[in-house]
Design a protein that fits this description.
heterodimer, A: 243 residues, mainly alpha, three-stranded antiparallel beta sheet, 5 strands, B: five-stranded parallel beta sheet, two-stranded antiparallel ribbon, 9 strands
Chain lengths: 243, 381
């Protein structure tokens, strides 16, 4: 606990809360990094804008792009699966019920958060971890991750070597509606994820500003600094939602 | 057995095919079926000695393209004979009989040899308007298919229409066209030989396999024989090296096109299509679509047409944006739109903050945390 001087008015007691444990932070950055690599190599695979000249045997452009894509995909898959596993092992803030709103309180606060985003409220209802709207968004993001993994594994299995264990994922191809559709879904979902990333970065900065709990910093350090009197219950704080 | 053998050899001689050619054909077949070379002898014995199965060829909603393909089996010439020596008791396009006579021949096969004939189906089966879109001798195609395929030893759905519905089943499917598997559900011993048209080499291969081993060849999840549909066109493509190297045709007739670069950017569906075109070829192995500079259109795949159009772009368009829309362009603009919306949100936020800072009442941070009102307390407790 430490005391800081808040702008203009009063002293506030801040509690140092360890919110994001290291697996959460590592998987976050693993996922972010692999998403970048996957998107860039994926864009080249969809639109090979570099054309090699000379003999085919002298180049391996697409081959390299695919290779990087596949390795990044493995990192991405492991990262996402680890994070999902951590939803059942980690602390309160990382658990599955922070993503799927199972209690009425989170449903109630979701409407408030949405109203805040639409300028109906001056402050969003405060939460130490994910706010309910963010949590639900991440739930859909995880669905999108799994869609990418399923379509990707299916497409990979379709051309995997006969002896490759990845052949086992061939069953995913008809599940997602055939190979051509798998490609299509894979592209669309990438763009959906980029729409999310735009929102994610913006909202992280915004919340850092309005909540002033160190949201952006917390994904590096794991810690948030939360006004003590705001903490009504573990993991839940109320920052004047009607203000 | 001797009699059959001599009959077969006489037939070969009559057509000017030497025994050496015949054994060569059997060797080629064992290769095409991915069997060891020694299987050639077994194939030769089977073809010479087995009693030839009776075959009936049904044509429904089709263009007779597979019949054309069937009649043009030519490499090696022996394939002709294998197909000719199948006792083709009914085939509307090529049979001499017509009208009631023809239908009687079919009825006779079904009545006399239950479970003892091979049914080949070409064309999709329309189910709309109580089957009125395709009737033969006054009977709906679906009734004929149910009766004939239901009583067959094995059914071969030849061509994409019979295997997956094909062109007639493309959206909006006005005739309610179905594949054989969908029209006659629960059909055992069904083999799909899709492609538009199916390559006759694969029909010969299936027949030879059947004659040799007395069972149908192993199939994939779409009931396509693995020897012919086990690998994607892309993975067997002669231009694959250009794909991996990053050498692509970008415009019809450009340098890359003339050099024989990969047709991926021209919308080639090779990566999503399974067939042995690259290795078997068409027109007696003369060439094949990609070999002569045209991208694969994916004619052998389920939902061909709907899922493989437009032919000259890699991916289907985005619903509501027209068939020629580009899913990635739509995605990019949507992402830009989202970014713009959030940027606007940011400006409004900034404006409100500045306005609030100008107020007499200080910024929100200065307010003490409000106690919860009753309703919220109820929620929180």
């Amino acid at each position: 606990m430490r005391r800081i001087w808040k702008k203009h008015v009063q002293e506030v007691d801040l509690d140092n809360v360890y919110v994001w444990q290291w697996p959460v932070r590592i998987t976050h950055w693993m996922t972010a990094l692999s998403l970048w690599i996957l998107s860039l190599t994926g864009l080249y695979m969809g639109y090979p804008f570099l054309i090699a000249s000379g003999q085919a045997s002298e180049h391996f452009l697409m081959g390299t792009a695919k290779l990087i894509h596949f390795y990044a995909a493995i990192a991405f898959t492991l990262s996402v699966l680890s994070r999902i596993l951590w939803m059942f092992m980690g602390n309160w803030y990382s658990r599955w019920h922070r993503f799927i709103p199972v209690d009425r309180r989170r449903w109630w606060a979701m409407g408030k958060t949405l109203r805040y985003y639409l300028f109906g409220l001056r402050m969003p209802p405060g939460f130490v971890g994910h706010n309910p709207l963010a949590g639900l968004t991440y739930f859909f993001v995880f669905i999108a991750f799994l869609v990418q993994i399923a379509t990707g594994l299916g497409m990979y299995a379709a051309s995997a070597h006969v002896d490759s264990p990845f052949r086992a994922f061939g069953f995913l191809v008809p599940v997602v509606g055939g190979l051509a559709t798998a490609h299509w879904i894979h592209h669309i979902t990438m763009w959906l994820l980029w729409m999310f990333i735009v929102h994610h970065v913006y909202s992280a900065i915004l919340m850092s500003q309005v909540e002033a709990t160190g949201t952006v910093e917390s994904i590096f350090s794991g810690h948030k600094f939360v006004p003590r009197e705001d903490i009504v219950q573990p993991g839940y704080r109320l920052a004047h939602p009607e203000a | 057995m001797d009699e059959a053998s001599s009959w077969f050899m006489r037939e070969l001689e009559r057509r000017g095919v030497s025994r050496r050619d015949f054994l060569g054909f059997c060797g080629v077949m064992s290769t095409a079926l991915a069997l060891p070379r020694t299987a050639g002898a077994k194939i030769a014995e089977a073809i010479e000695n087995k009693e030839k199965p009776t075959l009936v060829w049904l044509e429904f909603q089709d263009c007779a393209g597979n019949t054309e393909s069937f009649l043009r089996a030519g490499r090696p010439a022996v394939a002709d004979i294998v197909l000719d020596t199948l006792s083709v008791d009914y085939h509307e396009t090529i049979m001499a009989a017509a009208g009631h006579q023809a239908e009687a021949a079919l009825a006779q096969v079904v009545a006399d040899k239950p479970g003892g004939y091979i049914a080949v189906v070409e064309g999709s089966i329309p189910t709309g308007a109580n089957g009125a879109y395709c009737t033969i001798g006054g009977r709906a195609a679906i009734d004929i298919a149910k009766e004939v395929c239901g009583g067959a030893l094995a059914t071969v759905a030849i061509g994409t229409c019979a295997a997956f519905g094909g062109l007639p089943a493309a959206s909006p499917n006005p005739t309610g066209a179905l594949s054989v598997a969908d029209a006659v559900p629960g059909l055992k011993n069904l083999i799909n030989l899709p492609a538009c048209p199916a390559n006759v080499e694969n029909l010969v291969g299936t027949v030879v396999y059947f004659l040799t081993f007395n069972r149908l060849p192993p199939v994939d999840r779409y009931r396509r024989p693995l020897f012919a549909y086990g690998k994607s066109i892309h993975d067997n493509c002669e231009r694959r090296a250009h794909y991996d190297a990053g050498q692509y045709v970008e415009k019809w007739g450009d340098e890359g096109h003339r050099t024989g670069y990969c047709l991926y950017k021209m919308g080639c569906k090779g990566p999503v299509t399974y067939q042995n075109c690259p290795s078997v070829g068409w027109n007696e192995g003369t060439s094949w679509p990609i070999g002569c500079g045209h991208p694969c259109i994916g004619c052998a795949e389920p939902e061909f047409w709907d899922k493989m159009t437009p032919f000259y772009t890699h991916l289907a368009g985005f619903p509501g944006f027209g068939v020629h829309s580009n899913v990635d362009r739509v995605g990019m603009w949507a992402t830009a739109g989202v970014a713009a919306a959030f940027a606007a949100h940011g400006f409004v936020q900034l404006g409100k903050r500045m306005a609030a800072a100008g107020d007499k009442a200080p910024a929100v941070e200065s307010k003490p945390p409000r106690k919860t009102d009753k309703q919220e307390e109820g929620e929180l407790s």
